[in-house]
DNA sequence: CGTCATATATCGGCAACCGAGCTATTGTCG
DNA sequence: CGACAATAGCTCGGTTGCCGATATATGACG
């Protein structure tokens, strides 16, 4: 699962939202890092509804325009929860690997050991 | 950044590896969840080298076949570290949202409050 | 001799995302 | 009154990254 899709599910986890509300929520949840494009949003919404991860909650007519609210399904919540686990595992694994990274070790040149070193 | 790319950088963080070694390492690091396909691996390797996130460490000839070892660059390590932060933030944000999820609240039907409830 | 593991690489196709554009209303600023 | 931003929805073409199949080659196992 990609980041935009993940954030759409995340936004819908707390309460049902309509398209534009999702865009606003994702900006908020990602601290401004992710701004969903229409193509991404509506494509993902159709796809997630097909997969049963989200459902249409209700449709409101506000000032002539239609507002379609989406809701996270139980399946969607379960998938999101496993995805959270996955991200945590990936992050911790990568952090561990980075700690083992062979870096420039300043004390190991041929000059090290001269002048009596640490145990002089 | 997608998961396969992230795991390739993760694998290379600890030590330089050749293509097939990366595949093995990623299986290990992901607890068998991710098995890189050749198309994914070599496509990503070329792309990451173009972006300067990895470098060719050395080339060894073992039994007539070439083994090309890749190494994580400083830029690659920095990108991976920011990506770790990102994943952690996304995971915690989603977990928080999931905790706020409106679920079926069993005590709130019209029958609640009858039979004296909790404080009887 | 066939098959599996090791090892590298290419190609076509697909799915998800991006960016631009379109429609429409309300409200603000000049 | 016109321009613009914000709210609200949607379509379409293009790019990117990943997948799966395929090709090549060696050594080991049965």
From TrEMBL, chains A, B:
The family database entries (InterPro entries) matched by this protein are listed as: Metal_resp_DNA-bind_regulator, Tscrpt_reg_PadR_N, WH-like_DNA-bd_sf, WH_DNA-bd_sf
According to its UniProt entry, this protein's organism is: Actinoplanes lutulentus
* Protein name per Swiss-Prot or TrEMBL: PadR family transcriptional regulator
According to the record, the signal peptide region is: none
Per its UniProt entry, which superkingdom is the organism in?
Bacteria
* Gene3D superfamilies reported for this sequence: Winged helix-like DNA-binding domain superfamily/Winged helix DNA-binding domain
What SUPFAM superfamilies does the record tag this protein with?
Answer: Winged helix' DNA-binding domain (SSF46785)
Q: What is the lineage of its organism?
A: Bacteria, Bacillati, Actinomycetota, Actinomycetes, Micromonosporales
Domain Transcription regulator PadR N-terminal: start-end pairs: 8-80
């Amino acid at each position: 699962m990609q980041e935009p899709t993940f954030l759409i599910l995340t936004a819908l986890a707390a309460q049902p939202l309509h398209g534009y509300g999702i865009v606003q929520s994702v900006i908020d949840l990602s601290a401004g890092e992710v701004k969903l494009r229409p193509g991404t949003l509506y494509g993902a919404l159709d796809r997630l509804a097909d997969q049963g991860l989200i459902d249409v909650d209700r449709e409101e007519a506000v000032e002539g325009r239609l507002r379609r609210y989406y809701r996270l399904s139980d399946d969607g919540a379960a998938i999101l929860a496993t995805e959270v686990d996955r991200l945590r595992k990936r992050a911790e694994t990568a952090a561990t690997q980075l700690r083992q990274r062979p870096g420039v070790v300043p004390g190991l040149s041929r000059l090290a050991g001269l002048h009596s070193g640490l145990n002089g």
